[in-house]
Amino acid sequence: MFKRVLQFHLWRVQRAVAVILTSAFRMAFRMAFRLAFGLAFGLAIGFTSFALATNCEELSPTSTNVMAYGTDYLPRLDFHDGLEAETACVYDLPDALPAEMNIPLYGFNLQNAITGVRFRLIASVPLVTFTPSEDLTEIGGETVWNDEDYWYLDISLVAEEICGPLVIGEVTLSVPEGTESYFVDLLGFLAEQSPVFVYNHTIELPVVQPRHGAYAGQVDLYHCQPPLCVQPNTAVSEFQPIQSGGEVIELGWKGGGGDFTMIRYRTDGLHPTSIFDGELLTLMPSYPQQDFAIFHDNPQFVQYWYSAFSVTMVGEEVVLGSQLECDSFTTATVDESVGSESTTWGVLKSKYR
């Protein structure tokens, strides 16, 4: 197993000091977390400049940061290492039980250097601890807790500035005697909808982990499997900005395979990477290869970064399928006065998936 980890980086295991929080304090911590994040970062690794100084390799099909099945550029936090082996997140049970097992967690497809990551671990056997890599420091550590079925541990890590790909750390599990199989997976930190990567200490992007964790023992038809997509939507195409006056931005596109098109935007230089990310511009009915357009009235910023998602709806709910792997999207960047740049991630996805 450690041979696989060494394919990424040689790193020393460093245990963070756990800060024991009671269950009652957990909700108070959740409310105060975002306000205290900057201060906690300073206490954990020292106050530093809040301007990104690290220049990481740009995302491209040949980038070392973009793994084999990740060329749609969605940020990945995964127990699969992103290389070719389909079974990279499948493990053998120890010959003698009870025993402890260590499972590495990886990060890649990063949009520039990250300064933090947050997630919740869920496992079907007792969680012992999470050990971050030497480039990451845990803050606000929580203790393991459990319900009738599973064990949980919330993890929040900070760093100065680190590029991908990287090993986030290792999960240590206690496998009881008589265990025939187990899994470990990821959820959103505390009450958040998904894990997140943090950029420049304040900018947050949702994370995709389409393999649904790792497992050991008997065959698991859900965890460590390729995305469970019955009929993936084809991408929105020809998504582009058309400037039509100083107070209006017109966006045009051809519908994808889903029955709705969702367009979201950010103003911080990063394209929305999920249907929960950024601000919603529109969610409108769509038909494959039909021409559509919408006006973004009274823009308040000089530049916008848009993403168009082809999604399927049941009632008022978006069908997520296997995370966001089943949806396809394209992006465009627009200047308020000049259409400056456009790019299509959907094209890359169709070529390399």
Helix content: 10-25%
The topology string of helices and strands comes to HHEEEEEEEEEEEEEEEEEEEEEEEH
In terms of structural class, how would the helical and strand content be classed? mainly beta
Q: Can you tell me the CATH architecture of the largest domain?
A: Sandwich
Number of strands: 23
The backbone outline, from C-alpha atoms, is elongated
Low-confidence stretches: 1-53, 321-327, 336-353
Give the DSSP E fraction (strand runs of 2 or more residues). 35-45%
Describe the secondary-structure layout.
Elements: H1 2-6, H2 23-45, E1 76-78, E2 90-91, E3 99-108, E4 114-123, E5 127-132, E6 137-138, E7 145-146, E8 151-162, E9 166-175, E10 181-187, E11 196-199, E12 203-206, E13 214-217, E14 237-243, E15 248-254, E16 260-266, E17 279-285, E18 291-297, E19 303-311, E20 313-314, E21 317-318, E22 328-335, E23 341-343, H3 345-352
Parallel strand pairs: 2-13
Antiparallel strand pairs: 1-3, 3-9, 4-8, 4-10, 4-11, 5-9, 6-8, 7-8, 10-13, 11-12, 14-15, 15-18, 16-17, 16-19, 19-22, 20-21, 22-23
